[in-house]
Amino acid sequence: MDDRIAPAHGGAPAGAKAVWVRETRFGRWFLGTEIWRRYVLAEALRNLARMVEGRVPVGGHILDLGCGQGIAAPLLDAAFAPRRITGIDIDPELIALGQRQTYDAGLSDRLLLRPGNATDIPLADASVDLVLCHQVLHHLVPQREALAELHRVLRPSGLLLMAESCRSFIETGLVRALFRHPRESQRNADEYLDLVRSAGFRVDDRDVATSSPWWSRRDLGLLGSPDRRRLTQAEEPTEVLCVAVKM
């Protein structure tokens, strides 16, 4: 185990600074399910793609930070027609699973999955046109350092597509029982937007969307249907999406 990775119970080895809290066995399994791919990942990416329509160059280089098994790669390929997709994840086991699936997806000529740390991304300055950061920041302790790295690798005016679950979801009882997250890193929607802006990105109001997806309800959607619903005035968003531009 990387000495900068905290184990599932949330503690880090003595003398080490935790970068990431290792997911539970259930959580690692869930990230490979069709429910995750279809209703969490694909839905967020569809909404983000609509928000950036006409602003992403064809044939660009996309970074999928926290790519896991690389499940987003075919979706990114279909949405943006890049010449290259680089997927980085700190968990080498998930990367190994994804590498075995690369050929099945028909992307082996333009997809590279590799182990890497969000605070030390193995890419050159200004070498990426678009970054997908989907459900990653709430797993990280050094969030500001990770965003600084994304700012570094993006070209000028490059785009960061971010989707995050908010504190109002992460700190519900079922989520805390089934998954592991560093509690000190959890934020609400406005706090995530402030964090992104503080890293040198511009986020316009038109490039922000908040919602309460069915899977983020207190019962994890078990008693509901897979649709998004409007927030009542008293409710706090459980998910925030944004498009951020490197300044």
TrEMBL record:
One of its GO terms (molecular function) is S-adenosylmethionine-dependent methyltransferase activity. The keyword ATP-binding does not apply. Residues 63-161 form the Methyltransferase type domain. It comes from the Bacteria. Keywords: Methyltransferase, Transferase. Pfam families: Methyltransf_11. The keyword Methyltransferase applies. InterPro entries: Methyltransf_11 (IPR013216), Methyltransf_Superfamily (IPR050508), SAM-dependent_MTases_sf (IPR029063). Coiled coil: none annotated. GO terms for biological process: methylation. This is Methyltransferase family protein. It comes from Thiocapsa rosea.
